[in-house]
Fold this protein.
Amino acid sequence: MSIGEFVHDETPSSEIDRLEALYRPLADAVRDLVDATIRTTVDDATIRRTQADVEALVARLRARQLDGPAGVRFNSEARAWNWGNAVVGQRNALAPPLHLVRDPGGLLHADVVLGAAYEGPPGLVHGGVAALLLDHLMGETASAGHSRVTLTGTLTMRYRRGTPLGPLRLEGRIDREDGRKVYVVATLADAEGVTVEADGVFIVPRWA
Ligand SMILES: CCCCCCCCCCCC(=O)SCCNC(=O)CCNC(=O)[C@H](O)C(C)(C)COP(=O)(O)OP(=O)(O)OC[C@H]1O[C@@H](n2cnc3c(N)ncnc32)[C@H](O)[C@@H]1OP(=O)(O)O
């Protein structure tokens, strides 16, 4: 196998719900801290005091922690959780996070608001962030409701115009399949229409 294991973990779904409700507000607060760190205009002494406070909080959390990343875990109730995921991780303040919605007819969509932490060109979403979010949405589209594992083989992006920071919508659907190759198309759009088009080949790996 070329990636880390998907770990079977018999934590009941009710406990996963409880833990997610516990950690989500912490991740939200840290995400807010990231935004505040970018945009604050307070004086130098306040910055230094805040740095010391944040370092103390980090030390408190590091008192007990995992040896490595959070990974992907699942239980026999068909519940899967990937709390560290860069796009949807419930405990990851770097993730916007994206909330994926599966529509009847196979379309997968997500509405998201991207703030100052996702900036590339002034006022616009970083092109790599657009690719990151689309890659994840497309991978989830290809995996058809977690019924199979797919990995990104090739991803092509066409940036039609700059994507303003603010409210955005992603949509993806399977275009066609050929053996283990799943061809997915997706868009990123603002209120004015599509800003980025993507197409990709997602592959059910030989080992899956
Ligand atoms: C809560 C739970 C959430 C779980 C869900 C979470 C979803 C997360 C979604 C995020 C998606 C990611 O970012 S995934 C991470 C980024 N991607 C990766 O790290 C993938 C790294 N690459 C690989 O592991 C491998 O190269 C694979 C799996 C892509 C292919 O390996 P393989 O399985 O051995 O493939 P192989 O037999 O050689 O080829 C099979 C067919 O695919 C074609 N093919 C092979 N590679 C490619 C390629 N890169 N691009 C196009 N086509 C390719 C071959 O020509 C062949 O076509 P033919 O001869 O049959 O016609």
Summary: Residues 56 and 62 are 10 Å apart (CA to CA). The chain has two domains: 1-95, 98-203.
